[in-house]
Amino acid sequence: MTSVRDVEQSPEFKKLVTARWMMAIVLTLLVFISYYGFVIMVGVAKPTLAQRVGEVTTLGIPLAVLVIVFSFILTLIYVLWANASYDRMVDSLNKKLES
Amino acid sequence: MPQTSLGQPTAVAIIFFLLFVAVSLGITYWAARRTRTTTEYYAAARQITGFQNGLALAGDYMSAASFLGIAGLVALNGFDGMIYATGWLVGWPVLLFLIAEPLRNLGKYTFADVLAYRLQNRPIRLASAVGGILTVVFYTIAQMVGAGNLIKLMFGIPYEAAVIIVGVVMLMYVLFGGMIATTWVQIVKAALLLGGVTLLMLLGMAQFGFNPGNLYAAVAAKYGQAALEPGGMYVNALDTVSLGMALMFGLLGLPHILMRFYTVPDAREARKSIAWATGFIGYFYCIIPLVGFSAAALVGRDIIAGIDKGGNMAAPLLAELLGGTPFLGFIAAVAFATILAVVAGLTLAGASALSHDIYVNVVRGGHATEQEQVRVARIATILVGVLAILLGILFKGQNVAFMVGLAFAVACSANFPALLLSITWKRFSTAGATASILVGAILATGLIILSPTVWVDVFKYPAALFPLKNPAIVSMTASFIVAFAVSVLCPDRKAEEKFDVQKVRTYLAVGAE
User: Which of B86, B173, B329, B388 could be cross-linked to B12 through a Cys-Cys bond (beta carbons 3.0 to 4.6 Å apart)?
Assistant: First the structure.
């Protein structure tokens, strides 16, 4: 019987916690960079965003859409990672707790 | 002024609206027979799938403000309105990465459950209920006043009658059907809203050969290239960043959103539900600007602004132009349904803070029978519902646009720091959490009153005492600093001891409900 405290001290659990936070922090930073980068550009680099990329379409329009699409892609990356690798680690630790 | 049937109750609008109410009351009747226990009342028996919860989350989040408001902002201000649309979405991935799964594993019905897992029950429940209820009240006032105005504009019924209709109908859902009915009403509403706006966008784009470039060219021809460039709405970068922080982290502290994660069976479904929600909401915010630009090009800014200064009628006017009175009726009914569903979600969240956090855990010390808990939940629902109606009528004619900003500022300054630290920081103490919640709530509210949005726009003083339109960057930072300082000064041995067990439960869901 493995106790909850043993699990907490086990290297596998520590690895799980580190992996989860590495993933969470990197992805959160990417959201920050894309969104606050966009917002700060709106504040200080208006001419860049006003550049035309089409006949009249400005760079700002595709960038705004890109911020939204990028956020969605990041959630997908997290969910795919968690479904595949994180859940497997959780299951193996839970099996130890039960045995 | 062109011919418009906007503002007159048309048969089509009334039929669509009655149809929605009939269907949603049918759902409520069905759900009422499945709502006997507390878990059924607050958490839909934890039987909602990830996909269903994703739609329901989208339903809770996409308010009339984002539908009519952003379409109007884009129609009247062009590109600047799009910046707003991005800010409303970016909180969702962060919610997934930082909060959602631990929240699901540690809690039961409300986000206060997570804090109370290892901190002292009574003080922490009281403090977090204050943060939660303030957020819900500010958000509800904004929704109710918005609802009264919009329904008056679209259906021509008096403001007070509109507020009472919304209040009474949503009270029926929540009171009898609890979370099960509320969830299904959100799902129906989200599907209607996504479908309706897609149709509107397609009809609009058909006028431009389904090429956004042609649409932008038409807008630029009419209103100049400036309509497609960042303009005067966001002058100050610090202001924009502060508002962005409130929108992003506020989501992580909205009680009615957090509560939805208890309706799914486990953390895995909670995770999937955010991916679905982000997909639906992201799609919505990508197409809403096209609706706004189409309205500017086809209906015209002067007509839109002539009917409502804020531009809120841009989408309905476009619908009337492209699909006649029947389509206008449909879109008006969708907007009405949107408001109803959002207020229902808010009421349930407010009621659960009152009954589960304050009554059951603080007054009764956690000792209440199942029957008593459900009875108290229903009484609290009536209280919150009646309060929502009264506040809606009381704030008639007031400029409440800042209320949504206030709700998000309190959510990100009072609720979010305590929630994040209780999950991640071993030495976070009861005193630290209580102080951080109270400082965050008071500072966010106080600074908004002194800010240009209230001090100048509402009270009409010449200059604001606090320069930023949204105080999040100051109040949220202060809340974190207070949390650290007070936790170090007043440590909580018992809470530290429980951290190891909590940590295992956070990741492995050991003992989670």
Answer: B329
pLDDT of A1 higher than 70? no
- Among B272, B289, B504, select the one facing A79 at the smallest CB separation: B272
Indicate left, alpha or beta for B48 from its phi (over 0: left) and psi (-120 to 50: alpha). Answer: beta
Whether residue B278 and residue A46 make contact (CB cut-off 8 A), yes or no, is no
Cβ–Cβ < 8 Å for B507, B501: no
**Token reading at B343:** 């207020």
Using an 8 Å Cβ cutoff, are B351 and B41 in contact?
A: no
Element housing B384 (H / E): helix B370-394
- Chain B stretch 352-381, residues whose beta carbon is closer than 8 A to a beta carbon of chain A: none
Q: Which of B85, B279, B507 is opposite residue A16, by nearest beta carbon?
A: B507
Per DSSP, the three-state class of B368 is coil
d(CA B4, CA B155): 12
CB-CB contact of B409 with B250 (8 Å): yes
- A window 5-34, beta carbon within 8 A of B: 5, 7-8, 13, 16-17, 20, 23-25, 27-28, 31, 34
Q: Which tokens belong to B415?
A: 């609720």
Chain A hits for B268, CB-CB cut-off 8 Å, are 82-83, 87
| pLDDT (average), residues B229-251 | 84
Answer yes or no: do A64 and B97 touch at CB < 8 A: no
- Closest to B242 (Cα-Cα) out of B414, B413, B464: B413
CB pairs under 8 A between A and B: 161
pLDDT reported for residue B128: 93
Buried b vs exposed e over B201-215: b needs ≥16 C-beta within 10 Å? bebbbeebeeebebb
Helix axes A60-81, A11-44, angle to 10 degrees: 170
CB nearest to B504's CB, from A8, A25, A68: A8
The DSSP string of B20-88 is HHHHHHHHHHHHHTT--SHHHHHHGGG---HHHHHHHHHHHH--HIIIIIHHHHHHHHTHHHHHHHHHH
CA distance A68 to chain B (A): 6
Indicate yes or no: pTM above 0.90.
yes
Q: What is the pLDDT of residues B72-130, one digit of tens each?
A: 999 999 998 888 889 899 999 999 999 999 999 999 999 999 999 999 999 999 999 99
- CB of B257 closer than 8 Å to CB of B247: no
